[in-house]
Amino acid sequence: MHSSARYGGLLTDKYELTMLAAALRDGTAGRRVGFEMFTRRLPEARRYGVVAGTGRFLEALGQFTFDDSSLGLLEEFLDSQTVAFLADFRFRGDIDGYPEGELHFAGSPILSVRGTFAECVVLETLLLSIFNHDTAIASAAARMVNAAGGRPLIEMGSRRTHEQAAVAAARAAYLAGFAGTSNLEAHRRFGVPVLGTSAHAFTLLHTGPDGESAAFRAQVAAQGVDTTLLVDTYDVATGVANAVAAAGPGLAAVRIDSGELAVLAQQVRDQLDRLGATRTKIVVSGDLDEYGIAALRAAPVDSYGVGTSVVTGSGVPAAGFVYKLVEVDGQPVHKRSAGKQTRGGRKQALRVARESGIVTEEVIYPAGRPPAVDAWARTLTVPLVHGGDVVADTGVAALAEARERVASGLDSLPWEGLKLAHGEPAIPTRLVGGD
User: Where in this chain does the record put each Nicotinate phosphoribosyltransferase N-terminal domain (predicted)?
Assistant: First the structure.
């Protein structure tokens, strides 16, 4: 895996460093603590979440340091003791968590971060910004993958979000089961398959009465017949005829980007078949989300291009994760704020399933004290960082494993848990033991 992302220590919020300064001054900075990342509830309309961002966070952790330029800025509001501490900062604690690609639910202890207060507190913003973004994207993408019923999806939303968020979104969508992305940086950095051919501009470039045909011939000459021709710049039926005339019946695919997609797809399929292009596939795009994809299940569509809805989490741009202190010197601590209570102590979780493999509940318990269950169950938490060293794979192979984990997780959900309609989480969460 190659990366050009830069994760300096200033990717944080000021209050984390002012807390650090106060803790260094009063002697509490070195107390051993445990923080946890979790959601109090799933976002509206979500029956499950897909953990994403683990690989990016573990990569960022090693780069989360403070250079001379950063320290110079911090001297504006921090005392010399705190600046000296940050000059030598490196996370040296332990982190356990759910593997990337694992499903999660309300209360799931996604990450457990342990070390001194000083080294754990400064990770809050970095950690939450990565996981809240990537998990929201992967969770939306997984709903789209399920709605597509096995047909491939292409992520093509780079122009609808921040340029660096676009790269992370492409990775998260691929993790959730998308076939690839249009984003070249995601291909370079994470090995995500890259896809794409042309836009309406290329057709419009070729003016004159034969302009569309000339554009198609030029594209085929450059890319061969194993390409996708965009047929809806003008009249769709004429576009299909010109596409087959330019490429022959061996044309790989045509794309429709506007109009009543279900009706047009059927008309295009009939026309392609009459022209002998029976193996030419139909790609559709144009403001699709999981509901639009589901509505096209009966149409002769072979694959989907999805942009804005996937890179914005399809209405849920953040997963809702929080990062809370749950343990100090081995003793549980609790937040009791109205509506924002936390349960103290480090926790782990089991996923319980029937013999068929369909999951029935998630059981959260005090770390190291798993309850007895009268069913098949597996532990969800795995080691990620030990003594500051990353012990989990973060490369291309790990991303492939995460894709498999998402697919397996979706297959394990009860059928009602996959519905797009609003409703209860796919499985209940049960808390046992603890204080």
Answer: 10-132
Say what the pTM is.
0.94
* Residues 215 and 206: beta-carbon distance below 8 Å: yes
- CA-based torsion, 306, 108, 63, 120: positive or negative: positive
Residues of the chain with pLDDT under 50: 1
Q: In one letter, which amino acid is 128? A: L
How far is Cα 129 from Cα 107, in angstroms, rounded to an integer?
18
What is the structure's pLDDT at 205? 98
Q: What is the pLDDT of residues 235-272, one digit of tens each?
A: 999 999 999 999 999 999 999 999 999 999 999 999 99
Q: What pLDDT, on the 0 to 100 scale, is given for residue 374? A: 84
For residue 142, which of 284, 309, 290 has the smallest C-alpha distance? 290
- CATH number listed for the domain at residues 14-137+316-431: 3.20.140.10
> HSE on the CB side for 397, CA within 13 Å?
2
**∠ Cα 382 424 146 (to 5°):** 70
End-to-end CA distance of the chain, in Å?
Answer: 43
Q: Where are the domains positioned within the chain?
A: 14-137+316-431, 147-311
